[in-house]
Amino acid sequence: MKGWSYFCLGVLLALVTVGASCERSLEQREPAGQGPRESGGGRRGGILRLASSDDVPTLDPAIGYDSLSWSFEQLIFDTLLDYDDDGHLVPRLAASWEVSPDRKTYTFRLKPGVKFSDGSPLTAGDFVFSLQRVIDPATASQGAEFFRGIAGARDFAEGRATGVRGLAAPDFQTVVIRLERPDPLFPHKLTLLFSAVVPRRLLEKPQGDFASRPVGSGPFMLEQWRRGDRLRLKRNPYYRDPEAVYLDGVEQLVGVSEQLAWLKFESGELDVAAIPPAEFPRVVADPEYRDRLVKGVTLTTSYIGINCQMAPFDRVEVRRALNYAVDKAGIIKLIGGRGIEAKGVLPPGMPGYDSSLAGYPYDPARAKELLAEAGLSRGFATVLWTQNRETDLRVAQKIQQDLAAVGISVEIKTVAWASFLEAIREPGRVPLFDLGWFADFPDPSNFLEVLFDGRNFAANNHTFYNNPRVNELLDIARDTHDVAKRLEILAEVERLVVADAPWVFLYHPMTYAAVQRGVHNYRIHPLRPPRIEKVWLEG
User: pTM score > 0.85 for this model?
Assistant: First the structure.
């Protein structure tokens, strides 16, 4: 998932292996960690108050692929499967499911009586339509790549078929998905918001902007969205499990800087806030905050993306020089020590993480040597795009100073989140950009395939990196079902990517959030934005 929300910096912890995760996907159990019921102390009512410097780009689950969008989409929409608080696969809208002996056919039975927030019934046909909509090139969904393994998906996407033959709804309560070949990660892909169910009747012949007026089956529904000002959700009166939801709503103010949000939090105007780097040492040492800090597990890597198709970054020597020139330890110090230096792509805790990677130590002299080898001993000028947030700007300024020391003049361009996401997808527009990747599911392919496959320029390969050997190995890994062998192949992919340096590998963030005393059950999730639907407010 691109980027992370305003307080998504986590304590890293080892997750289960891919093999174990896939086995657990066959367990049919109810989600854990729903939060206390009223009889256990939970109280109903109240609005959870949040703030962000940037607006949510979209509320259409087929389009959103960033943590700001997902934070609210996961409250409005439902998926067949989900993760519990520990990152294990559990049912969401699926009452049960079966997998065929050849591991190519999944049959899901839906929970009965589910309705959309407008009161209309949700059927298996809505799921078939929703997945087909993501695969349809006309939707321009970055999630299409996750579902190309469904039988007939490529024929449909390339105009050779009018539908996806591997998707079927034999009755109102049954969804059948057939794959071209076994995919042990497919259950994880059905947790992605891309696969969320939307009402077919509203989108088959769309009227109006669904992204601004979404209708889903999740615990909340959109009440008000004044772009650039605030976004407010209210309780969905038709939600299938109303007793599981305590809040009356969620409101996020937009255009609030990190420092201003902290001031609002300290004055009691917000319920949850990030801790600005300048405030972090004081806050963690203050007994007043001892029981008000929330820490969690995320699988995230922060990096500077380098456009490998734009001169002079089409030279590997230049990309490596940038890596040697940037003082990663200095950046971590700048953000209050909340990070681990990145030596490669994968974060600690991700299956296949290679602790032996040397990466690029801080070595300005080596950076200058590489620039000289590329014929750039006199340096050059470039532009670094970053988000319009205080912490991002401070990191960008530190990188600007580091690169100036080796002769590279950097102009910093601050851009709002939605515009930033749009710009980095355009070839030849953004030479350098400051971003992070937050894992969608615990498998190295979610970094290596999604971000570095040379055939994904139209999706998530925003560095426009293309190494034929990497592409070949990714294809081999995709068809390798022996877990250990597959991880070996992906480890070789990571070594090649690190050598080619399409990123400046910065750090793996560690997350802290501060909550008011009356906020209960707010948690950082290992694989998703915080699950706000489980929060309750005291008093």
Answer: no
